[in-house]
Amino acid sequence: MTLTYSGPSTVTAGVAPVTFSGTLSESYSSYASPPTGTVSLLQNGSVIATTPLSGTPPCSFQFTVNSSAKPLQAGAGSFTLSYAGEAAWLPSTSNAVSITVDPVLAIALSSNLVPGSTTVLSEPLFQ
Length: 127
Known about the structure:
With 127 residues, the protein is an all-beta fold. It has a single domain, classed as Immunoglobulin-like (Sandwich). The chain is 0% helix and 49% strand. The chain is built from no helices and 11 strands. Strands 2, 4, 5, 7, 8 and 9 form a 6-stranded mixed β-sheet that branches. It has a 3-stranded antiparallel β-sheet with strand order 1-3-6, with no helix packed on it. The relative contact order is 0.29.
């Protein structure tokens, strides 16, 4: 199994989507059936996304992660793919891809437009 990434080596958590591509083509122990099950994308050993396998080998898939609702974990990131295997396919783990994930830097603006209340607005500084 291979994992590819062609984006920048440093990204900001939750600011812009990050797309990883993968291919499952080896560990074929029998040509009786195409692979079934799911492939997981892991960040530092923790599953952050999954996708079902479909079609005949080689099976290609993409993961787009790092949304504002579910940002990547900040810090040094080692990303890998994992497939548990099944009857005709052996388990497989991909090569690791390293990306640094910076935390979101935000500025808070407050205003006392209404006496006794405060409104705080936050926006990322870098995109």
